[in-house]
Amino acid sequence: MTHCRNQIAQIVVTAAEMRAIENRLFAAGMPVAALMEKVAGLLARRMIDQWEALGLAPAKIGVLVGPGHNGGDALVIARELYLQGYSVVVTQPLAKLKELTEAHAQYGKSLGIPWVSLEELLDSCKILIDGLFGFGLERSISGELAEQIDRINQSQILICSIDLPSGIHTDTGQVLGCAIRADYTFCLGLWKAACFQDSAVEYLGTVEWIDFGIPFADIDAILGQSSRCYRITKERAIAGLPLPRPLLSHKYKAGHLLLVCGSEEYAGSAILAGLGARASGVGMLSIAVPHRLKPLLVAQLPEALIIPCPETETGAIAELPDTLNYQKYQAIACGPGITRSAEPIIPTLLNLPIPAILDADGLNILASLGMSQLNQRSAPTILTPHTGEFKRLFPNIDPNIDRIKAVREASQQTGAIVLLKGARTAIGSPTGTVYLNPESTPALARGGSGDVLTGLLGGLVAQLPQAPEMATQTATWWHAQAGILAAQQRTALGVDAFHLTEYLSQIPLR
Ligand SMILES: NC(=O)C1=CN([C@@H]2O[C@H](COP(=O)(O)OP(=O)(O)OC[C@H]3O[C@@H](n4cnc5c(N)ncnc54)[C@H](OP(=O)(O)O)[C@@H]3O)[C@@H](O)[C@H]2O)[C@@H](O)CC1
Ligand SMILES: Nc1ncnc2c1ncn2[C@@H]1O[C@H](COP(=O)(O)OP(=O)(O)O)[C@@H](O)[C@H]1O
Ligand SMILES: [K+]
C-alpha cells in the first residue's frame, strides 16, 4: 500500500461524513453508477477469494437486496457472479427500490437470475451476501423484516455483509431493532465508526476494508473541520516508539517511571504493573508499594527500585515517603491494587508537574474526591477506566450508547486523555480526536490484564513524555496484540495476565 492509502486506512468516519465525502465525488463528476460498479467489482473479487480460501466455492450464493444503494451494490455483485457462472439467487424483502437499484434489479431479472423467497434461499444456499442496508439506515427495523433477519441469523449460512451488517447503526454500532450477524464485513471506502464500537462487535465478524480510491483531498476537505477519529494501525502504533535506541543512550535517558501500586489485599497488581512497565523498555523503574510488599517486589522485579511506603492498618499505602525526589521521574502511574484506603496519595500525585496515569482505585478515588482535582494539573493526565469506572467518573455520560462520543466528551470535560477499556478500546484526547483499537481478544477479559496495560503505558509515557497521546495509542495496540498472539499460541483460556507480560516482548515492533 502507498503512503497515502496507508493514511486513509487510519481514518474512521460517521455516516454523515461518508455521505459528505461521496457527495463531493459526485459533484466533481464521478457518476454514481460508475462508482457502484467499481465498488461492487472490488467486492465480488474479494469475496470470491475469501470463499476459495474457506473451500466454499462454487457453492450456490444467495443475495439479500435492500431498497438503497447497499442493495444496488449487492445486485451488481449478483450479476457479476452470475455472469462468471456461479449459481445465484436473489431475495428482495422490500418492494420499493431506489432508481439505480431498481435498474440493476431489472437487468438482473432479464439475465435470468431467479428472485426467490427467503426460505428458498436459506434452503438452497451456503453463502449469503447481505446488501439489505448500509450507512443509509437510520430507522429501527421491525415487523416482517425483523423476523426475516432473525431467520437468517438462526440459519447456518455464511454471511458476508456489504459495508456494515444490516441493522447496525453506522456511528454508534447499536442494533437498530435487529441486525444481521455477519461472518465477514467488508467496509467500503473509509472505515465506519461502528466497526470499532463494542455494541457491534458480536455482529461484525471478521472486518475488512475495501479501498476504492477515494481521493485524499476530498476526505481532507470534509474532515478538516470536524473532530477526527483514527484507527490505531500498526504503523501508527509503532511510529512514536524510541526505536532504534540511540547508540549513546543511557538508563536515565530512556525515561524513569514511578509506579504507585499494590496493597496487602492486591499484592499481585503491583507485580503485574511492574512487569508491564518492564516490557515497555523504560530506562529506570521505581515502584512505590506498602512497606510489607518490598521483599515480594524485589524478588519479582530485581531491576526495579522498590520504594517502601508507610502503610494503613489494612496494608494499603498511607502516604508517599517525604524523602521522594519527584523531579527524577518522567511519568507516574498510580492505581493498580492500591484500594480506596490510599486516598491521601492521589491529591499529592496530581499536584506534581509530571505526566500522570490513573487507573483502577486511583480512578475510584478521583471520582469520590471530584474531577476538580484535575483542574490545577500542569502536565498531561491519562485516565484508563473500564466501563464501570468510567460511569463513576462521568455519571453524566453514558458509555454504553456511543463509546466514541463518550470518550470525546469525557476528555474535553476534563482536559485528560481518556482511555476507555473494552473489547474495542477507545481513546479520547482533549482536542476532540479519538483513537480506536481495531482488534483485540476476549482472552484479555481476565483480572490483572488492565494492571499490565497501566505498567506498559506508564513505561511508554516515561520514554515519550512529550507525546502522551502517541504513547497511549501504542500501549493499547501493543497490549491487544500481545493478547492476540498469546491466545493463538496458548488458546483463549491461556492468557492470564502474568503470561501476557511475556508475550509483550514477542510482538514485532518493526
Ligand atoms: N452513494 C453511493 O453511490 C455509494 C454507496 N455505496 C453503497 O451505498 C450504501 C448507502 O446507500 P444508501 O444511502 O442508499 O442507503 P442504504 O444503506 O442502502 O439504505 C437506505 C435505504 O433504506 C431505507 N430504509 C432505511 N431504514 C429502513 C427501515 N428501517 N426499514 C425499511 N427501509 C429502510 C431508506 O428508505 P427511506 O428512509 O428513504 O424511506 C433507503 O431507501 C453504502 O452503505 C454502500 O453499500 C457504495 O457502493 C459506494 C458508492
Ligand atoms: N472482551 C474483550 N475483548 C478484548 N479485550 C478485552 C475484553 N475484555 C477486557 N479486555 C481488555 O482487558 C483489559 C482489562 O482491564 P481491566 O478491566 O482494568 O482489568 P483489571 O482491572 O482486572 O486488570 C483491558 O485492556 C480491556 O480492554
Ligand atoms: K449490509
TrEMBL record:
Residues 234-510 form the YjeF C-terminal domain. (6S)-NADPHX binds at residues 69-73, 134-140, 163, 337, 386, 451. It comes from the Bacteria. Binds 1 potassium ion per subunit. It catalyses: (6R)-NADPHX = (6S)-NADPHX; (6S)-NADHX + ADP = AMP + phosphate + NADH + H(+); (6S)-NADPHX + ADP = AMP + phosphate + NADPH + H(+); (6R)-NADHX = (6S)-NADHX. One of its GO terms (molecular function) is metal ion binding. K(+) binds at N70, D130, S166. The keyword Transmembrane helix does not apply. Transmembrane segments: none annotated. It holds the Pfam family Carb_kinase. Its cofactor is K(+); Mg(2+). Its EC number is 4.2.1.136, 5.1.99.6. AMP binds at K421, G422, A423, R424, T425, G450. Residues 18-220 form the YjeF N-terminal domain. One of its GO terms (biological process) is nicotinamide nucleotide metabolic process. Keywords: ATP-binding, Isomerase, Lyase, Metal-binding, Multifunctional enzyme, NAD, NADP, Nucleotide-binding, Potassium. Homotetramer. Catalyzes the dehydration of the S-form of NAD(P)HX at the expense of ADP, which is converted to AMP. Together with NAD(P)HX epimerase, which catalyzes the epimerization of the S- and R-forms, the enzyme allows the repair of both epimers of NAD(P)HX, a damaged form of NAD(P)H that is a result of enzymatic or heat-dependent hydration. Catalyzes the epimerization of the S- and R-forms of NAD(P)HX, a damaged form of NAD(P)H that is a result of enzymatic or heat-dependent hydration. This is a prerequisite for the S-specific NAD(P)H-hydrate dehydratase to allow the repair of both epimers of NAD(P)HX. Belongs to the NnrD/CARKD family. This is Bifunctional NAD(P)H-hydrate repair enzyme. It comes from Roseofilum reptotaenium AO1-A. The gene is nnrE.
